[in-house]
Design a protein that fits this description.
The chain is an alpha+beta fold. It has seven helices and 29 strands. The radius of gyration is 24 Å and the shape is globular. It comes from Citrus sinensis (Sweet orange).
Length: 475
């Protein structure tokens, strides 16, 4: 009888300990995800089932799509490689935070055949997600990249002397009854020229901007106001913002992968959020690429807000134009990284929908990487992605993989638990990488990128000065 019992136990144990992936001895499975390796690959077919867009009085929702995913109308069948995406993300980081970074832009991040490094308005096409809005009366539809780390909302305008290729027709100011150029001698223009200098000395009636880049290229155009209509995909509801500030680009050396421009969603004086007094907006970035997400302008109903956990947006006498919050810790596999509370009080923490991967100070990244590698030691390591991602795995020999859960903690007891797609970025089954990297040259900054935001609802209570995370409906 004892021999039969031992044989039965051995029979049960053997399948659980095979090399197909997870076993009962893997690192605390309650703090891990066990997933099929093939499920990590980006989808090639769009899920046409419509995401249930948030609806209600005083709000409007729009579809949000990855510009490189199968649901994109901008996709020309040419998606950039992982290394190319990371390089653009690195360029954008140097561009946006050039004032914070301590060293000059590396030569390998300056202009090449595929990339241009800008100094002010974003010209590098790292932004991943776009939506479609209407400008003018009658409406002209444009595809704008969503960016909570950019200020100006701008699009290429007709006539365009030298512009990058875009999928939509160029916005034609002459066809809009509500379009109005900002005069060069106006108070508004003087303020704008203080932020975006021009060298024309008001020789024309237009309020020009001329943005120079470190490689000698640039963007130029003029400032105007017009009407923007946010209209839901189901045509049941919309709202209009008029006038809002619009940058009309007539010369550009940038590349937006088919998009028309950018919707600037930060807190600066010139952003659409400030200029139109939008007090609340939220979005859910689709995970995976084969789904559609949404952005909602207006506050959610009180029934669903109980599932949203808020952390304060930092308020200082010199208010940042970005959405700065307070990081209190990171956990890997249920264990917090060993940093004191005083360490986090020194950090500058920002959330940015336009950044791709999350960036950490070097000491924190080293601790995160060490903890992650320890829990992934059974898997074969692979070469890194460029010089940015250094913790990658070759999973071709496995059917399933056990990935430790990573949770990011914010002030107020707010925990952002990442799913597998918020933890890993995938070039192929032979190159699956931890989606975090070092914040270059800055030991006191933390940037939450869009990889880690995917699949969650992110809420910007601008009036209440708080930022929230809740369960999303775009996975």
């Amino acid at each position: 009888m004892w021999i039969l019992l031992k044989a039965f136990v051995l029979f049960i144990w053997l399948p659980c300990s095979s090399n197909n992936g997870a076993s009962a001895n893997d690192n605390n499975l309650s703090h891990s995800y066990t997933v099929s390796v093939t499920s990590l690959l980006p989808p090639t077919v769009c899920n046409r089932t419509r995401t249930a867009l948030p609806q209600g009085l005083g709000k409007a929702s729009l579809d949000v799509v990855s510009k490189h995913g199968p649901c994109s109308t901008l996709n020309q069948g040419k998606s950039p490689s992982l290394e190319e995406t990371l390089r653009r993300d690195q360029q954008r980081l140097y561009s946006k935070y050039s004032g914070r970074l301590q060293k000059a832009v590396p030569d390998n991040l300056k202009k090449t055949k595929a990339f241009t490094f800008p100094a002010k308005i974003e010209s590098v096409s790292a932004d991943e997600y776009y939506t479609v809005v209407a400008i003018g009366k009658p409406k002209q539809y444009v595809s704008l990249l969503l960016d909570t780390g950019s200020d100006v909302t701008w699009t290429q305008c007709k006539p365009c002397i030298h512009c990058f290729q875009q999928r939509d027709p160029l916005f034609d100011p002459s066809k809009s009854k509500t379009f109005s150029k900002i005069p060069c001698n106006s108070t508004t223009c003087k303020k704008l020229r203080g932020l975006f200098p021009s060298d024309d000395n008001c020789n024309s009636r237009e309020c020009h901007f001329n943005i120079a880049y470190v490689d000698g290229s640039g963007n130029s155009g003029f400032w105007a106001t017009d009407r923007m209509t946010i209209q839901e995909a189901n045509i049941k509801g919309y709202f209009t913002r008029y006038p809002f500030l619009l940058g009309c680009i007539r010369n550009s050396s940038g590349d937006k992968s088919g998009a028309s421009g950018i919707m600037g969603l930060d807190r600066s004086p010139v952003s659409i959020i400030t200029k139109t007094k939008i007090s609340y907006f939220s979005y859910c970035l689709p995970s995976p690429y084969g789904s559609r997400g949404y952005i909602t302008f207006g506050k959610r109903n009180t029934v669903k807000t109980k599932f949203i956990k808020y952390t304060p947006i930092i308020t200082t006498p010199e208010q940042s134009e970005y959405y700065d919050i307070t990081l209190t810790g990171i956990s890997v596999g249920g264990k917090k990284l060993p940093f004191s509370t005083s360490y986090f009080t020194k950090l500058s923490t920002e959330i940015d929908s336009g950044a791709v991967i999350t960036r950490l100070p070097s000491p924190m990244y080293a601790a995160l990487r060490s903890a992650f590698r320890k829990r992934m030691k059974k898997y074969k390591r692979a070469k890194g992605a460029g010089d940015i991602l250094d913790t990658c795995y070759d999973l071709r020999a496995y059917e399933t993989v056990v990935v430790p859960k990573i949770t990011i903690h914010f002030l107020g007891g707010v925990d952002l638990e990442l799913d597998v797609r918020g933890t890993l970025v995938v070039a192929s089954v032979s190159q699956v990488c931890l989606g975090f990297a070092v914040y270059p040259s800055d030991t006191n900054s933390f940037l939450l990128g869009n990889v880690q935001q995917r699949g969650h609802e992110v809420h910007y209570d601008v009036a209440g000065r708080r930022l929230g995370f809740g369960p999303g409906n775009c996975s």
